């Protein structure tokens, strides 16, 4: 068995990936037993370990995508699905909050609009 491509794995369902994972783990176990009996080179084990890692990565990607779809448009999201940004950026005012003005400021802007000057040449 050769290396698995992540793109090929993404086309499969989570159930199929689970079956593939079980098969790969069984193969790895057999190769470990053969290695203990000194009948196997180490590169085969590395190949199967990488295949297992690829399968697990694709499974976690699919689970994350499902969770993102589930919480799309909801008021609250799990912490790991929220935007990370930086602590300071997360605590910043929203654009709507930044644009709010006091009643006094609104009146000043209405009564004393922006002055426009033209320079005579």
From TrEMBL:
Q: Which UniProt keywords apply?
A: Ribonucleoprotein, Ribosomal protein
Q: Where is the signal peptide?
A: none
Q: Which GO terms describe its biological process?
A: maturation of LSU-rRNA from tricistronic rRNA transcript (SSU-rRNA, 5.8S rRNA, LSU-rRNA); translation
Which Pfam families does the record associate with it? Ribosomal_L29
Q: Does the keyword Cell inner membrane apply?
A: no
Single GO molecular-function term?
structural constituent of ribosome
Q: Does the keyword Ribonucleoprotein apply?
A: yes
Q: According to its record, what are the GO cellular component terms?
A: cytosolic large ribosomal subunit
Source domain of life = Eukaryota
Q: Which family does it belong to?
A: Belongs to the universal ribosomal protein uL29 family.
Q: What is this protein called?
A: 60S ribosomal protein L35, L29
| Biological source species | Mycoemilia scoparia
